[in-house]
Amino acid sequence: MSTHSYITRAGYEKLEKELQRLMSVERPAVIKSLAHARSYGDLAENAEYAAAKERQLQVESKINAISQRLASSIIIDESMIPSDKAYLGATVRLKDKKTGEEITYRLVSTVEADFNENKISTESPVGRALLGKMAGEAVEITVPAGKLSYEILSISRG
């Protein structure tokens, strides 16, 4: 049973690009490695062949997962989302109520999440807590490290 998930256009395009790379670069390289390893003869004791088969399994698994994700994704139209609320695609500026430190996050799909770029998934604890909130609201978030308390300073798109 497949469920649909929302994704930004950028996230969808990132998945398409990765799928294309896997199918046009990785898959042919693995096939070539398998053919080369087969040329050594006895496959039962051929470590190179076993490694190539393992790599093939990994590549095919990734291709399958990305294909399924693309098939079940719904690209959001960010222009249809209220610009004053935190939803997928929003950039949210927060102030830590304890330290006064400010941080800015962009709410993205799981595929696009990259903590180093301050892109957090709407499925993460922080992302879920921010969904639907407006500037001026306070949020308390329980995370594995404890409780976080933020004030939402601003919300923007793009």
TrEMBL record:
Function: Necessary for efficient RNA polymerase transcription elongation past template-encoded arresting sites. The arresting sites in DNA have the property of trapping a certain fraction of elongating RNA polymerases that pass through, resulting in locked ternary complexes. Cleavage of the nascent transcript by cleavage factors such as GreA or GreB allows the resumption of elongation from the new 3'terminus. GreA releases sequences of 2 to 3 nucleotides.
Residue span(s) of domain Transcription elongation factor GreA/GreB N-terminal: 6-73
The encoding gene: greA
Keywords (A to Z) from UniProt: DNA-binding, Elongation factor, Protein biosynthesis, Transcription, Transcription regulation
Superkingdom: Bacteria
Pfam families (alphabetical): GreA_GreB, GreA_GreB_N
Name this polypeptide is given: Transcription elongation factor GreA
Positions of the Transcription elongation factor GreA/GreB C-terminal domain: 82-156
Protein family according to the UniProt entry: Belongs to the GreA/GreB family.
Record-linked InterPro entries: GreA/GreB_C_sf, TF_GreA/GreB_CS, Tscrpt_elong_fac_GreA, Tscrpt_elong_fac_GreA/B, Tscrpt_elong_fac_GreA/B_C, Tscrpt_elong_fac_GreA/B_fam, Tscrpt_elong_fac_GreA/B_N, Tscrpt_elong_fac_GreA/B_N_sf
GO annotation, biological process: DNA-templated transcription elongation; regulation of DNA-templated transcription elongation
Signal sequence region: none
UniProt-recorded Gene Ontology molecular function terms: DNA binding; RNA polymerase binding; translation elongation factor activity
